[in-house]
């Protein structure tokens, strides 16, 4: 995913930057273009560091997640109710990706592991480490199916675009 994102940014930025430099160097007004490129490079470096620092840790005390922006959330083993493991169809494709949802004893979503970021092996490690009931959904689901069956497992923006009303 990191490689795809980097290539996408490069494919957009390189031609635009080349044209802007080509137009501004002869007039001596290239400094704002260079500053914008420096800013974009800093944003990309921040995104890369944030991506590489994202982690989910499971131990005897419970589960904790450091998210993309560095926010750390932790839940004790007493707060964890169950794990739901399923295959979710990618939008507009026949391919599926695994999704793991760690839910609390009250049914709310605590941690989500998406197949775009985590391997099946990493998900199975979480399942093995948490001594809670595991629900393995046998058939792949679409986002809309999951929204109808268990909307509490989805992020707010996924519920909004799949027709679920609260």
From TrEMBL:
TM annotation in the entry: 34-51
Keywords for this protein: Membrane, Transmembrane, Transmembrane helix
Top-rank taxon, per record: Bacteria
Protein name: PH domain-containing protein
Organism for this UniProt entry: Cryobacterium cryoconiti
């Amino acid at each position: 995913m990191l490689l795809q994102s980097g290539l996408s940014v490069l494919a957009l930025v390189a031609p635009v930057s080349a044209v802007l430099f080509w137009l501004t160097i002869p007039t001596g007004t290239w400094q704002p273009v260079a500053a914008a490129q420096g800013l974009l490079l800093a944003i990309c470096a921040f995104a890369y560091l944030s991506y590489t620092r994202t982690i989910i840790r499971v131990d005897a005390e419970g589960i904790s997640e450091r998210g993309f922006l560095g926010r750390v959330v932790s839940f004790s083993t007493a707060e964890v109710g169950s794990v739901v493991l399923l295959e979710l169809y990618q939008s507009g494709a026949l391919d599926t990706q695994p999704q793991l949802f760690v839910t609390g004893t009250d049914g709310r979503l605590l941690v989500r592991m998406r197949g775009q970021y985590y391997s099946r092996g990493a998900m199975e490690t979480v399942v093995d480490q948490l001594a809670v009931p595991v629900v393995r959904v046998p058939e792949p689901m679409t986002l809309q199916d999951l929204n109808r069956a268990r909307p509490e497992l989805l992020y707010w923006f996924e519920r909004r675009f799949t027709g679920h009303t609260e």
